Amino acid sequence: MTPTPETWPIGAALLNFTGVTADGRDRTTAGAEAWKQTLREVRSAGFDHVDLTDSWVRPADLDSDGRKDLLAVARSYDLAFSDIAVTRKSVITPDEDQAQRNIAYTKRTIDAAADLEAPMVCLGLHDPFTDAQKEATWFWLAEGAEDADTQENRDKAATRFRDLGEYAAARGVSISLEMYEGTFLGTADSSVQLVTAVDLPNVGLCPDIGNIVRLHREVEDWREMLTKMLPHTNYWQLKNYFRDYDPATGSYASAPAPLALGFINYREAIGMAVESGFDGPMCVEHYGGDGLSVTAMNRDYIREILKAKLPEA
Questions:
Q1: What is the pLDDT of residues 133-163, one digit of tens each?
Q2: Comparing C-alpha atoms, which of 122, 139, 130, 253 is closest to residue 185?
């Protein structure tokens, strides 16, 4: 059943919250007292769902009691987990030992999703930041690692995501593959090709077109990307950017923007998603500044659009 504008799960991303406590401890192992303030602020911003970004807390590295504690803290603020996002742990990273560690970590995350009653785990093929990305004002202004474009590598990605999809299905969890530049999920066509090769009903796409629009180069038209990917979409991270191109100099510029103000027309994009039958969880993201307040505005903006776009009861 398609959710209503009021009940559609729209999770707050935790990108703006650090994984280290003020006194220098790993927030994951610091326990419930280190989790409360963030979740309290998320609830205070009007959210009822959290997109559990593992740069804040790594549920894969919590034991059973730790996961119970995390769920209890979330429930104490009337919050539910709409997704767990695994960041920068590619299952085909060139270091095979690291790739195997990433696969094991992903399986533990899927186990955690079941324990935390999160229906979705979002995976990607992007690797950790390069030194240049760490030093840039915005990390997307510097070149990152890229997948070696070989058929063997493509087949490996499909096989490993299929294995993870089957593992997740046995636990009642779905997998979404995040669009990201420099990977086999870097274009609409390659994303569709990969998810089609995986060929599992619980594995779909996350068409995070904001990841592409922010790049300082020519990019695919966002409408064309969505047209191709929405039929395969089961989860959606939404963010927007100001984007400019000066043909006289060949220079590009981009910066984070609220959904309503940026380059992508999300009124049209959400309408396209509704028409395609998309009914999965959404996640609102924003880099820089008071990201939580911007994502709260984005959430309200989405709900207003859904009121206009969803069929009347």
A1: 999 999 999 999 999 999 999 999 999 999 9
A2: 122
Distance CA 157, CA 183 (A): 10
CA distance 174 to 82: 11
On whether the CB atoms of residues 12 and 284 are closer than 8 A, the answer is yes
| Chain center to CA of 293 | 18
Q: Which of 255, 239, 13, 238 is nearest to 141 (CA)?
A: 255
Residue 171: the pLDDT is 98
Give the three-class secondary structure for 124. Answer: coil
**pLDDT tens digits for range 69-121:** 999 999 999 999 999 999 999 999 999 999 999 999 999 999 999 999 999 99
Q: What is the pTM of this model?
A: 0.97
**Tokens 């009861």, residue located:** 313
Q: What is the pLDDT of residue 312?
A: 83
Rg (CA), the chain: 19
From the list 226, 233, 238, the residue with the least C-alpha distance to 285 is 238
Per-residue b or e along 245-283, where b marks 16 or more CB atoms closer than 10 Å to that residue's CB: eeeeeeebebebbbbbebbbebbebbbbbbeeebebbbb
Residue 309, H or E segment: helix 291-309
The pLDDT, as a whole number, for residue 81 is 98
| Listed residue (17, 18, 91, 8) closest to 47, CA to CA | 8
Q: Provide the pairing of β-strand 80-85 with 174-178.
A: unpaired
Arithmetic mean of pLDDT over the chain: 97
Question: For residue 226, what are the CA distances in angstroms to 130, 179, 305?
Answer: 29, 11, 17
